[in-house]
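Audit log entry. Action: structure prediction of a protein-small molecule complex. Ligand: flavin-adenine dinucleotide. The ligand was supplied as SMILES and no pocket hint was given, so placement is left entirely to the predictor. Protonation state taken as written. Sequence taken verbatim from the request; no trimming, no tag removal. Recorded inputs:
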Amino acid sequence: MADTTLRAAIVGGGVTGLTAGYRLSRGRGWEAIAVLEAAPRPGGNVATTRADGFIVEHGPAGFLDNVPETLALARDLGLTPVPSNAGARKRFLVHDGALARVPENPIAFLRSPLLSPAGRLRVLAEPFARRRPPGDETVFHFAARRIGTEAAAVLIDAMVTGVFAGDSAALSLRSAFPKMHAMESAHGGLVRAMLAKKWARLRGRGDAAAGGPSGPGGVLSSFEGGFATLVERLAAALGDKVRTSTPVLGLARRGGLFELATPAGAIKAERVLLAVPAAQCAAILHDALPAAAGILRGIPAAPIAVAALAFPARGFPHSLGGFGFLVPRRERLRILGALWSSSIFPARAPEDSVLLTCMAGGARDTRAVTLPDAALVALVMEDLAAVFGPLPAPTRKFIFRYEEGIAQYPPGHEDRLAALARVCGTMPGLHLAGSSFRGISVNLCVVQAERAAEAMAAGP
Ligand SMILES: Cc1cc2nc3c(=O)[nH]c(=O)nc-3n(C[C@H](O)[C@H](O)[C@H](O)COP(=O)(O)OP(=O)(O)OC[C@H]3O[C@@H](n4cnc5c(N)ncnc54)[C@H](O)[C@@H]3O)c2cc1C
């Protein structure tokens, strides 16, 4: 490929790579950059199918509107976030085979059937929990220590399924839920941290900006036309700087420049950002930085199969008033949960239909993603019928598979990132960002992308 040397090459055109490319390209003198994307379309995990009145998300449904970087990015792209419907604040868990609402306040919690009376009392004892043990604690261990094993198994395990499709006993609290870790570090407990936050608010000193004990908060938001509108706008703004169907096979450093190997030939660049999942990063760095590749192979990902099914709205046996439900592990179902997509955002299905987006697989069921479509739909239908009662056959089926769906941060993740930074530091101009590193949410991918773009613009 006859190519002049690029000032920057960004490998991976997911939301991380596109955002980094967009931010970099806004600076003066950064015309000669490229985003190299293996797939025929940019966007990575963020994708939307629009067909016959349906707007169907393949993966992420949206972002929480409490991170300024994503809001500013949307604004710069001329996009107005669409908040989820107010009714979608209601969330459910499967409990003894039926749907039970997740309590939203302490009174509702005390009345909730989700935990036994002893389990609820144990949650109330949170301020007296044992102190944090040394080392990198798992999410499950943390929750069991602070609010008891029952609440950890029912509430926290389901939350981890909902966010990471992960195993709460195999994820580092500090890396996967850093805010919760910080709440305990700063205030000695979750209740104390929440009281401190309330107190600060009463005194007019919100602490979210200071990195204090702000919970997840925020309203789930998306865009007109679906979440992919975000990556489509980014790609449109970058224009021919995005090169699709361009997989990067390897990287070498020669004469002070990076050389990226692609099937169409080498691409030279002064700086490189790898914005691809850890396994692909490892493959790209295998020859140039084998030590980095070894560390990267220690960051796994959980596969997910998504089945979005439409049913006639008339006669559907549930009002679907809410966000959807998650399935705690002790329930005998194979799906991880279902989003009631046509209830969450407006105009996601024709008036006469409802749309349910069901997830299967995750870290504990890595084979679900390999099931053929018919078997996947059969298992989803069986589990939906167990929750709702008999259902008619779906009128539309949209199936998506993510073999490396969501990055998992096992204990030791922070040490792994520190080691990675040391090894990559031996190759100035090489940067890494994306969901395998410092946050899996689109919000945190955007934040990482902005930081990477700043570092690339400032550094060698
Ligand atoms: C089912 C599902 C539901 C989710 N729901 C939510 C949600 O509701 N909210 C939320 O905030 N997050 C959600 N997430 C997480 C979020 O989607 C991801 O963490 C985020 O989109 C990752 O973006 P990324 O750019 O870092 O990586 P990716 O989206 O994985 O993009 C990486 C890109 O790199 C490309 N690539 C890989 N190897 C190469 C190579 N060698 N050369 C060139 N290109 C390469 C890939 O094709 C891909 O396009 C969900 C994820 C899944 C799977």
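Audit: result stored. The two ends are 25 Å apart (CA to CA). The first helix runs from residue 15 to 26.
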